[in-house]
Design a protein that fits this description.
It contains 8 helices and 15 strands. It is of the alpha/beta class and 243 residues long. The chain folds into 2 domains: 120 residues, Rossmann fold, CATH 3.40.50.2300; 110 residues, Beta Barrel (OB fold (Dihydrolipoamide Acetyltransferase, E2P)). The strands form 4 sheets. Strands 2-1-3-4-5 form a 5-stranded parallel β-sheet. A 5-stranded antiparallel β-sheet has the order 10-9-8-12-11. Helix 2 packs parallel to helix 3. The longest helix has 17 residues. InterPro entries: CheY-like_superfamily, LytR-like, LytTR_DNA-bd_dom, Sig_transdc_resp-reg_receiver. Keywords: DNA-binding, Phosphoprotein, Two-component regulatory system. One of its GO terms (molecular function) is phosphorelay response regulator activity.
C-alpha cells in the first residue's frame, strides 16, 4: 500500500531535506508541501492524505492547532511532528502523533519512522464497503424510536457526556455515541467542530455574531440553539467561513 503524504514546513532547506529522505528511503508519495498552516488546512479540507509531516512553528495556524483540527477529520492522517522544540513533545503525543522528530533530522531516526509508517499502513484493515444509503444516513433516537436521518439534515450537535444531542429542523434527537464518534460519521466538507462540545453544519449557518474575547456565536437557520466558537478553533473557523 502506497502512502500519500503532506509536508508542512516553512523552512525551505528543512523541507527539501525531509523530502529527500522520504523519497530516498520509502515509497511514500509526497502529494504537496506547504510553508503556511492555513494553506495546508485548506488543502486537507478537500484532499485526503495518509501522513502529515508537520512543523510546529509555521505561519497563520501553528502546527499544534493544525493537528487538533486534523484530529476532527473523518479521515485522520497519521501525524509526524518535525521541530526544533523539545517542549511540545507531551502535547504532540496527547494528539496521538506517530513520532516527534527533532531538528536537525537524524537519518537513521527517519528511516525507522518511515518503516513504522509503512508497517502501520499494512496492519490497517481494508475499508468496509457500505451501501450508498448507509453512508448518507444515521440512526438517531427519540422516545425509544429509531429515526433514520439523512446526514445532510443535521444542523448541529451538542455533546452530553456519553451521548450527543443532534438537532435537525424536525427537532432534537439523541445519538448514543460521543460527539467525537459522531464526527467520524460526518463529512468534513460540511461539518465543523467549532468547540469541544459542539459541531455545526456549515451549510446551515445563518448569522455569525461577534462575541466575547474576539470569538463568535453562531446562529443557525433551522434550529434555536446558538453555538459558540472556542478560541482554540477561531482561526480555523475564520478560514472556513472566509472571515
Amino acid at each position: 500500500m502506497q502512502l500519500n503524504a503532506l509536508i508542512v514546513e516553512d523552512e525551505y532547506l528543512a523541507r527539501e531535506e525531509l523530502t529527500y529522505l522520504i523519497e530516498k528511503h520509502s515509497t511514500i508519495n509526497i502529494v504537496a508541501a506547504f510553508d503556511d498552516g492555513l494553506d495546508a488546512f485548506k488543502f486537507l479540507q478537500s484532499n485526503k492524505v495518509d501522513v502529515v509531516f508537520l512543523d510546529i512553528n509555521v505561519p497563520s495556524i501553528d502546527g499544534m492547532l493544525l493537528a487538533r483540527n486534523i484530529a476532527q477529520f473523518s479521515h485522520k492522517p497519521q501525524i509526524v511532528f518535525t521541530t526544533a522544540y523539545k517542549e511540545y513533545a507531551v502535547d504532540a503525543f496527547e494528539l496521538e502523533a506517530v513520532d516527534y522528530l527533532l531538528k536537525p533530522l537524524n537519518e537513521q531516526r527517519v528511516i525507522g519512522l518511515l518503516a513504522k509508517l509503512q508497517a502501520r499502513a499494512q496492519e490497517q484493515e481494508p475499508p468496509q464497503v457500505t451501501t450508498n444509503i448507509r453512508s448518507h444516513t444515521i440512526n438517531l433516537m427519540l422516545n425509544n424510536h429509531i429515526h433514520v436521518t439523512a446526514i445532510s439534515d443535521i444542523c448541529c450537535a451538542i455533546a452530553n457526556e456519553k451521548v450527543t444531542h443532534v438537532y435537525t429542523a424536525e427537532g432534537c434527537f439523541v445519538a448514543p455515541i460521543t460527539i467525537s464518534e459522531l464526527m467520524l460519521r460526518l463529512p468534513t466538507s460540511d461539518f465543523f467542530r467549532c468547540h469541544r462540545s459542539y459541531c455545526i453544519n456549515i451549510n446551515d449557518v445563518k448569522e455569525i455574531i461577534p462575541w466575547v474575547n474576539s470569538t463568535y456565536m453562531i446562529k443557525l437557520a433551522h434550529v434555536e440553539p446558538h453555538i459558540p466558537v472556542s478560541r482554540s478553533n477561531l482561526k480555523a473557523f475564520r478560514c472556513l467561513m472566509q472571515l
